[in-house]
Design a protein that fits this description.
The protein is α/β, with parallel strands linked by helices. 38% of the residues lie in helices and 19% in strands. The chain folds into 2 domains: 205 residues, 3-Layer(aba) Sandwich (Carbamate kinase); 147 residues, VC0802-like. The protein is globular, with a radius of gyration of 25 Å. Bound molecules: aspartic acid. The site of aspartic acid has 13 residues, from helix 7.
Length: 435
């Protein structure tokens, strides 16, 4: 059985619902359909979830939210009349409005976009609707109760051929609604795929999968056909826009592949995300390039630092006690660089340097601001000679000065530090070398 999640842009209006219907009906193996709330139809449009959050905000301050709620009402009644569905949409919308006015929780309000979209979609597809609140359970700490959720899914979805389950939320033990973080319908789809032991988790959106590089930096980058969960983690950590982070873990446990597909171009294969064992090595090539700007490198030099017990611990404690997370720490015999994001550093550069001086007593501390990090990711690196040579030659031919290199022990990536100004140039040069 497959689980198919459709994002907000795939269900933004009646025409999009029609595309979803034809996708679901043309594939008998789709067993669970997970909808998001209606997303933007065009650049200036609003996501229904944002409107619902706003209604809650106004209502919780005792203010009138009619104007905003009318936009939501128009969106849903518009979809229903385009699709000629028979659900009592007016009544549903007015009941929810009363709940919001009477002080319903923020999570309850936000979840209603998925809830209503689920009701409409189930009716339009002519299949049952099962509320996510009956399947997805959170514990008293607000964490997903995996065991309970798995048994609820087995109990309620067992034997059902095709069903709609709204994304983005579940319920607490007392029955109240709790949402995941933003974009959380991806997570719902993954949890259900895990619960029904799906053969595939399809994630339908408005792009035909992931691209090898950011299209704002590289012109027409090639799509990625196959990527492993691990590679994807590396790419998303370095800023590539991918799935909701938490959406990977539930399916990864059972090794269920995820297929990113385009609702507007169902003929495209999209990107398949798989377990390591499933992926051929992709020798001689890379999977993708991603990167972020605005890091600071703090380089600490001390002769024989590696022979001094506790030196690294002291250095790391300075960052820890200042609540700064460390991104990378490449080192050599007598020096070590600590790389932190400028956001993480939060204006504490001088304080941190002073404290390193007191605590670690180094020979020298130098900081380099305005650095960018670029990750070249590829499972093929492990066994192929010459990939790094190709990367570095491309950078030198492109006139980019490399300020730092770090290769993860998994040999899945090479991280390169360059100046912010060289960021675009560097990504373009690397992409061209592997195109
Ligand atoms: N509708 C929710 C949001 O906008 C969840 C989702 O779309 O996945 O964040």
């Amino acid at each position: 059985m497959k689980v198919a999640k459709f994002g907000g842009s795939s269900l933004a209006d009646g025409a999009q619902f029609k595309k979803v219907k034809s996708i679901v009906e043309s594939d008998k193996s789709i067993g669970v359909v997970v909808p998001s709330a209606p997303g933007k139809r065009h650049g200036k449009d609003h996501k229904v979830t944002d409107l619902l959050y706003m209604c809650h905000q106004l209502a919780s301050h005792g203010l009138n939210f009619d104007e905003v709620y009318t936009i939501i009402q128009d969106r849903f009644t518009g979809i229903c009349s385009e699709l000629e569905t028979g659900i009592p949409i007016g009544e549903i919308l007015s009941d929810i409005k009363t709940m919001i006015r009477d002080g319903a929780s923020r999570d309850y309000c936000a979840s209603r976009g998925e809830y209503i979209n689920g009701l409409i979609l189930a009716d339009y597809l002519g299949i049952p609707f099962i509320d996510a609140a009956e399947l997805i359970r959170f514990d008293t700490m607000g964490q997903l109760d995996e065991n309970k959720t798995r048994s609820l899914i087995a109990e309620k979805l067992g034997g059902i051929e095709k069903v709609v389950v709204p994304g983005f939320y579940g319920s607490n033990e007392d029955g109240s609604i709790r949402t995941f973080s933003r974009g959380g319908s991806d997570v719902t789809g993954a949890i259900i795929a895990d619960g029904v032991d799906a053969e595939l988790y399809e994630n339908w959106t408005d792009v035909s999968g992931f691209l090898m590089a950011d299209p704002r930096v590289v012109k027409d980058p090639k799509p990625i056909k196959l990527v492993t969960y691990k590679e994807l983690r590396e790419l998303s950590y370095m800023g590539a826009p991918v799935l909701h982070e938490e959406a990977i873990f539930p399916v990864r446990r059972l090794g269920i592949p995820i297929n990113i597909r385009n609702t507007n171009r169902p003929e495209d294969e999209g990107t398949l995300i798989v377990n390591d064992q499933w992926a051929e090595r992709n020798e001689g090539s890379i999977t993708g390039i991603a990167g972020k700007k605005d890091f600071t490198v703090i380089s600490v030099e001390k002769t024989l630092m590696t022979a001094e017990q506790g030196f690294f611990r002291k250095l790391v404690s300075v960052f820890e006690t200042n609540d700064i997370t460390i991104e990378h720490m490449p080192s050599s015999i007598d020096s070590i660089s600590v790389i932190v994001s400028d956001i993480g550093l939060n204006g504490k550069l001088k304080k941190v340097k002073d404290e390193i001086q007191i605590y670690c007593n180094p020979d020298n501390i130098v900081s380099y601001p305005s650095m960018a990090l670029i990750a070249v990711v590829g499972r093929g690196m492990i066994n192929t000679k010459g990939i790094s040579a190709k990367v570095f030659t491309a950078l030198s031919d492109g006139g980019v000065n490399i300020r730092m290199i770090s290769q993860g022990s998994s040999e899945l990536n090479i991280i390169i530090g360059v100046e912010n100004n060289d960021f675009e140039k560097a990504i373009e040069a690397i992409y061209k070398a592997f195109e």
